[in-house]
Here is the input.
Amino acid sequence: MSGLDTLRETMRRDRVFDFVARREPISSERLDTRHGPILYLESVTVSFDGFKALNDLTLYIDDGELRCIIGPNGAGKTTMMDVITGKTRPDEGTVFFGQNIDLTRLPEPEIAQAGIGRKFQKPTIFEQLSVFENLELAMATDKRVWPSLVMRLSSEQRDRIEEVLNTVGLHALIYERAGKLSHGQKQWLEIGMLLMQNPRLLLVDEPVAGMTHQEVEHTAELLTSLAGKHSVVVVEHDMEFVRSIARTVTVLHEGHVLAEGDMDEVQNDPKVVEVYLGS
Ligand SMILES: Nc1ncnc2c1ncn2[C@@H]1O[C@H](COP(=O)(O)OP(=O)(O)OP(=O)(O)O)[C@@H](O)[C@H]1O
Ligand SMILES: [Mg+2]
Here is the structure.
């Protein structure tokens, strides 16, 4: 390569880097929901070695709604959440957050940054830290640094932690070590950690598995209280729990919407009874 070519190559690369560096990060302020739903999945198909885990799935979630998704094992519920959060890319179809954010084109961290929080079944709390410290850490953008070592909380940040503690019902346990919490309390702490990021959309996969009856009730109240401020999508098999929180229920079967409506409508739908509720 001649000296001139090398110079050209360097300039070209610099422009690319410059472009990458200057790309504006997607923030939740950019989300446009003025003309409709907060989440659009249209004709989404995901294949694993020819098997269609999602098959022409179309689903809309409104801003502020609490939606329950039910359906038999293997129906594609978790795969649907994987597609929304960017963990799995669809083979076909479109996935939009508001009218303007194309989730199929964003890397996972940017999807989280854009305002989509996901709660996995196994809580990812820090057992050695207190409830308060866990929430403090959830606020930090750089997870490698424990925030108390490098920054002092502003009064707004402290207020925000207090607010979240009240929302999830863990205020009395503020200085308790997270490892000592009950199974249900750990789940609520993790929901609290997600809330610290102030997500517009919260995805919750099987939140009440393994909980006591009382914990299930508290979780129902908690998720209900989040609706309005956040859009919440809950996947759950526990029908009593679903009935206690559900407004609209979507039934998935073989990667496709089998039925949608209020709890009574879907429970009395013969197709739903046949594939899911009949047993
Ligand atoms: N990474 C993967 N590779 C291959 N097959 C997969 C993968 N992920 C999911 N599947 C398959 O896709 C189908 C849908 O799985 P998914 O986990 O989405 O179902 P689900 O509705 O969440 O079920 P459950 O109620 O049991 O949690 C299943 O048949 C599953 O085996
Ligand atoms: Mg699942």
Observations:
- Residues 77-78, 205 surround magnesium ion (ligand 2) (CB under 6 Å).
